[in-house]
Amino acid sequence: VTTGQFREFADATGYKANDVCNIWDGTTAFKTPNTGWRNPGYGRPAADNEPGACLSWDDAKAYIAWLNQKTGKSYRLLSESEWEYVARAGRPPTLYTWGNDPDGACKEANVADLQVKNVPPPMTPRPFPPANCDDGYPYIAPAGALAPNPFGVYDMIGSIWEWVEDCYVMPYPDNTPTDGSAYTGPNGCDRRTSKGGSWGSTIDRQIPTFRGRDPSTLTSQVFGFRIARDLGE
To answer: What residues form DSSP beta bridges with 33?
Structure first.
């Protein structure tokens, strides 16, 4: 979901998302007042064609409820297993979706790469070695700017961490669904799963099996969401 799509929802409903977002300061991410999805710490307002950032799992659910009511369709967050299936897109089970070489990321993934030295103030480069490739963007790339995967889907890896429906539990419980649906726990959960890494993540976070784990209320300049629609309605 892009900034522009989320803006349409917020303008239509008056929805108020958190205006204190976790922003990177060069050493860590900290809660920064007067930020949020309109101003996610880029040194400029978020562009409508960029993936929406500083959006929590709860924001995602509010957007989906509005979209379903508006369209009469059934949109939702992906489950974790659905997300991994789409990210791999029928390719061999290599470490990364594109292969085993981390430096092969930049064709289809907006990651922390050789462009990281060009991030504009007030942003600061990450203190870890970048991927040895160049995706053309020092931080967030416009949605769909890089190559799609073999399923024709864009930005599954890198760009923005994507919330999925699942509760985060480790290890996986014995009653984890095997039909592709989300694990939501018997009594809900205090953390939700995120997938895919981001433009500011270390390359080891970009493997499709890596699982983020955060409260549903978390807002971060590298967190947003993707939605799916149930067909056959």
So the answer is: 20
Q: CA–CA separation, 35 vs 231, rounded Å? A: 36
Predicted local distance difference test score (pLDDT) of residue 233: 56
Structure-block tokens of residue 162 = 């994507």
Considering the domain 3-229, what is its CATH architecture? Alpha-Beta Complex (3.90)
Instruction: Give the C-alpha separation, 130 to 226, whole Å.
Output: 25
d(CA 108, CA 205): 15
Instruction: Tell me the pLDDT band of 127, cut-offs 50, 70 and 90.
Output: confident
Phi and psi of 193, rounded to 5°? -90, 145
Contacts 24+ apart (CB under 8 A), 116-120: 120/42, 120/43
Judged by phi (left if over 0) then psi (alpha if -120 to 50, else beta), residue 125 lies in beta
Closest CA to 55 of 192, 187, 147: 192
Q: What's the pLDDT at 27?
A: 67
Helix (H, G, I), strand (E, B) or coil at 102: helix
pTM: 0.94
pLDDT per residue as tens digits for the range 207-233: 999 999 999 999 999 999 999 999 975
